[in-house]
Design goal:
CATH superfamily of the largest domain: Isopropylmalate Dehydrogenase
Shape: globular
Radius of gyration: 21 Å
Order of helices and strands: EHEHHEHEEEHEHEHEHEHEEHHH
Number of helices: 12
Strand content: 15-25%
Bound molecules: nicotinamide-adenine-dinucleotide
CATH class of the largest domain: Alpha Beta
Number of strands: 12
Largest sheet: 10 strands, mixed
Strand order of the largest sheet: 2-1-3-12-11-4-5-10-8-9
Number of domains: 3
Distance between the termini: 24 Å
Length: 360
C-alpha cells in the first residue's frame, strides 16, 4: 500500500535533515507518495505567510505529515508554525520517546521513557494580557472588585486553563500508548499542591482515567520532585503524562538525558491528523553545512511508520539507526567525544550508514 504523506522540509537545517530522512524511509521499501509543501521563514520571506493554505490543505487531505523544524523569529509578527499546526489540526497529544541508545555519551544510560505532553491548553493557550493595556486593567479590576483577588500594578497576565476534556483525552492517550507499546506504568506530573484548580483538576482526572486501566500501573509526581528523580533514578520511569508547559520543559530535560537534542523524536497526534517532527529546532547556525544529526527526524520517521501500521519496517529502521550509533564511527559531531572530532560524518553520510545497516 502506498502512503500519501505531506512532507514539509521546513527551514534552517530542516531541508537537509528532511532529505536524509526521506532517503532512509524510502530505503525501508515502504511506498510513499510525498506531497512536498512549504512552511517556515523562507516561504514567509517570499509570500508573507509562514504557513500557506496549500500546506494546510495538503495535511487536511492526507491526515499525516512529516515536518522538518521551522524558525520562529523572536519579535516579528510571525506566529509559531508549530503552535498554529497544533491548533489547526487539534494535535492534542505530543508523544516524545526518549531512549538512551547504546553508544551515546550520557550519564543516564538506563533512560527509556516516553513523554506524553498535552499540546492545546495550559499557559500555551495564548490567553495573555499585556502590562499597561486596557484589557489587563479591565481584568485586574474584575479580579480585585468581583473576585477579591488583587494583582500588583504594572502586571502582565497569562491565563492557565486546564479542562476536564483536555486532561481526560491526554491521559487516555498516555494509557493507550502504554498498552500499544508494551509499557507498564504511567506517571502523571503536576503541581497540584499549589495550583489546586488547574493542576489539581488534571490530577483528579488522571486518577479517574487510571481506574479504567487497572492493568497499567499508575502513580503521580509533583513536577519538581519528578525532575529530581528523573536525574537520580531514571530507570523507575516509563510513560510520563504532563500538562503543556511541564511537558515542554521535561521533554528537553529528557532529550539531554539521552545524549542531546539531535536524538529526540516526536509525534503530534490529534483527532484529525498526525504530524511527526523532531523535538529540536532549526539550528540555523548549521544551515547548509551537512553537519547536524538526522537521528531525531529519522526516529520521528520510525514513529510515523508505526502510526501507519508498518511495524516491521519501523523495527528495521530503528535497528539501523541504533547500530550506527552503537558502532560510533559514522556518526555526526554531536555523538563524537569532542565537537571538533575530525572523524565525524555529515548528515547525509549518517543516513547512508543507516541505509547500509538496514540492508546488512
Ligand atoms: P535548536 O534546537 O534549533 O538548536 C539549539 C542547539 O541544539 C543547536 O545550536 C545545536 O547545537 C543543537 N542541535 C539542535 N538540533 C540538532 C541536531 N539535529 N544535531 C545536532 N545538534 C543539534 O534551538 P534554538 O536555537 O533555540 O531554536 C532555533 C529556531 O528553531 C527558533 O526559531 C525556534 O523557535 C525554532 N524551533 C522550532 C521547533 C520546531 O520546528 N519544531 C522546535 C524548537 C525550536
Amino acid at each position: 500500500m502506498t502512503h500519501r504523506v505531506t512532507f514539509i522540509p521546513g527551514d534552517g537545517t530542516g531541508p537537509e535533515l528532511g532529505e536524509a530522512t526521506r532517503r532512509v524511509l524510502e530505503a525501508t521499501g515502504v511506498e510513499f507518495e510525498w506531497d512536498f509543501q512549504d512552511a517556515g521563514i523562507d516561504v514567509y520571506e517570499q509570500e508573507g505567510n509562514p504557513l500557506p493554505d496549500r500546506t494546510l490543505d495538503s495535511i487536511r487531505e492526507r491526515g499525516i505529515a512529516i515536518k522538518g523544524p521551522t524558525t520562529t523569529p523572536v519579535g516579528s509578527g510571525h506566529r509559531s508554525i508549530n503552535v498554529a499546526l497544533r491548533q489547526e489540526f487539534d494535535l492534542y497529544s505530543c508523544v516524545r520517546p526518549c531512549k538512551a541508545y547504546e553508544g551515546v555519551r550520557t550519564r543516564f544510560p538506563e533512560t527509556d521513557i516516553v513523554i506524553v505532553r498535552e499540546n492545546t491548553e495550559d499557559l500555551y493557550a495564548g490567553i495573555e494580557f499585556e502590562q499597561g493595556s486596557p484589557e489587563v486593567e479591565k481584568l485586574r479590576s474584575f479580579l480585585a472588585d468581583e473576585l477579591d483577588s488583587p494583582t500588583r500594578e504594572q502586571s502582565g497576565i497569562s491565563i492557565k486553563p486546564i479542562s476536564v476534556f483536555g486532561s481526560e483525552r491526554i491521559v487516555e492517550s498516555a494509557f493507550a500508548y502504554a498498552k500499544d507499546n508494551g509499557r507498564k506504568k504511567v506517571t502523571a506530573a503536576h503541581k497540584a499542591n499549589i495550583m489546586k484548580f488547574s493542576d489539581g483538576l488534571f490530577l483528579e482526572v488522571a486518577r479517574r482515567v487510571a481506574e479504567r486501566h487497572p492493568e497499567i500501573e499508575f502513580e503521580d509526581r509533583i513536577i519538581d520532585n519528578l525532575c529530581n528523580q528523573l536525574v537520580s533514578r531514571p530507570e523507575e520511569y516509563d510513560v510520563i503524562v504532563l500538562p503543556n508547559l511541564y511537558g515542554d520543559i521535561v521533554s528537553d530535560l529528557a532529550a539531554g538525558m539521552i545524549g542531546g537534542l539531535g536524538l529526540a523524536p516526536g509525534a503530534n497526534i490529534g483527532s484529525t491528523g498526525a504530524i511527526f517532527e523532531a523535538t529540536h529546532g532549526s539550528a540555523p547556525k548549521y544551515k547548509g553545512q551537512n553537519r547536524v544529526n538526522p537521528t531525531a527526524l529519522l526516529l520521528s520517521g520510525v514513529l510515523m511508520l508505526r502510526h501507519l501500521g508498518e511495524t516491521e519496517p519501523a523495527d528495521r529502521m530503528e535497528h539501523g539507526i541504533a547500530e550506527v550509533i552503537r558502532k560510533g564511527d559514522k556518526v555526526t559531531y554531536d555523538l563524537k567525544p569532542t565537537r571538533d572530532d575530525p572523524t565525524a560524518v555529515g548528515t547525509s553520510e549518517f543516513a547512508d550508514a543507516v541505509i547500509e545497516e538496514m540492508n546488512a
